[in-house]
Write a structure and sequence with these properties.
single chain; alpha/beta; 7-stranded mixed sheet; 4-stranded antiparallel sheet; 13 helices; binds ligand LLH; binds magnesium ion
Length: about 375
């Protein structure tokens, strides 16, 4: 079996979200036209693997300069060899071949393998369970009345999330350009209000401003200990491993990370060795694919640690279902103004349907689990390359 073609396809769809000037997503006041890309890898027997990806990640330059050169003519089942060939290309790519692109190519290969073998990918890569408990992960705070603009609004939303079935809740609090952010006092008030609203038994996590100083992080961490939080995430610049080791050495609330730090599984091994985290973190796009997430999770398991998977996607859900040492699937980002359970028009169904007990169920269809509406995508395509 050989890879014959690699295609990118950009399509448009109506979106109810927007990004602020720092890249954090929020509900938008008007419906906007957004773009998404579909990557399709086709083998010589006609089997196809597909994955949705941001347009820039798999733009024509990236397909021409790297993916086609490395993958065309190769056996699509040789994922590890092909991943390493792409990973080594990164060094000379002047930053153009990103971890996110690696993750897109690798996930399309997993989707292809699942379809060829007639199995869902989570069964191929581990098959630990077929449903995963989800925590509801809020959007970052905002200044929208009735949204996430005050501690009380977080508390009201948390109560709704618990009613919906979530067994755990993670707050993303306020970040610039919100006028009063960052604010240690407001972050603590939001955590207090949510704890008060949901009671002592609901696991809570905080993912606040990502660039607090050590002393600000310590102040918040002490409050989280008092409020019995489950973990404290990305509160400082993750490029300073030593700052995390300093913080972890003083707090009892578990530190979780790194999420956005570069370096894939290699960097995560350094974090464990440095004592910089209590719970490891890896997300499929951030570390270059499902394979590297499994490496991080297995590394964590070998050290008696959990590895929590970052972000909502079919690939992340498959990884959560394939490993024993991940307690939660991160579902979101959620906001009082948005309906998460409604599929966008390019999907027939969402990849992470959640029951009233807070479990997300894995698709039993062959492949990765993105239930694409190919008719919609074809009808709204604006470029193919
Ligand atoms: O800063 C943000 O916008 C969020 O933290 C976002 O990156 C989110 O994906 C996250 O951190 N989840 O855990
Ligand atoms: Mg995070």
């Amino acid at each position: 079996m050989k890879i014959e073609t690699i295609q990118g396809q950009v399509f448009v769809f109506p979106s109810y979200r927007c990004s602020d000037s720092a890249g954090h997503s929020h509900p938008s006041e008007t419906v906007t036209e957004a773009k998404m890309a579909l990557l399709t890898i086709t083998a010589d027997d006609g089997t196809q693997g597909r994955i949705l990806a941001p347009v820039e990640v798999i733009r024509p330059f990236v397909l021409d300069s790297f993916a086609r050169k490395v993958l065309i003519g190769q056996d699509p089942f040789d994922r590890e060899r092909l991943w390493h060939a792409l990973e080594q290309w990164q060094r000379g790519s002047a930053g153009q071949l990103t971890d996110r692109a690696l993750a897109a190519f690798e996930q399309a290969l997993w989707d292809l393998a699942g379809r060829k073998l007639g199995l869902p990918v989570y069964k191929l890569i581990g098959g630990f369970r077929d449903k995963v408990p989800a925590y509801g992960s809020t959007m970052c705070g905002d200044e929208l009345k009735g949204g996430l603009s005050t501690p009380d609004e977080y508390a009201d939303f948390a109560v709704k999330m618990v009613k919906r079935g979530y067994k755990g809740i993670k707050l993303h609090t306020w970040m610039p350009p919100v006028s009063f952010a960052p604010s240690v006092a407001m972050d603590i008030k939001a955590c207090e209000a949510v704890r008060e609203a949901v009671g002592p038994d609901v696991p809570l996590m905080l993912d606040g401003f990502h660039w607090y100083s050590r002393m600000d992080a310590l102040t918040i961490g002490r409050a989280l200990e008092r409020l019995n939080f489950t973990w404290f995430e990305e509160m400082m610049n993750e490029q300073s491993i030593d700052s995390y080791a300093w913080l972890a050495g003083q707090l009892n609330v578990p530190i979780l990370g790194p999420e956005s730090a570069a370096g894939k599984h290699w960097a995560r091994a350094d974090w464990v060795r440095a004592g910089a985290t209590d719970i490891l973190r890896a997300g499929v796009p951030g570390v270059g694919g499902i394979g590297p997430v499994l490496k991080v999770a297995h590394l964590a398991e070998s050290f008696g640690m959990d590895c929590e998977v970052h972000g909502s996607s079919a690939g992340n859900l498959a990884a959560c279902a394939a490993i024993a040492n991940c307690r939660w699937y991160e579902r979101g980002l959620l906001h009082p103004f948005l309906e998460y359970d409604e599929p966008p028009p390019y999907l027939n169904t969402i990849w992470d349907p959640m029951d009233s007990e807070g479990f997300v169920h894995l698709s039993q269809e062959p492949g990765l689990g993105e239930d694409l509406n190919l008719d919609y995508i074809d009808a709204h395509t604006i470029s193919t390359y």
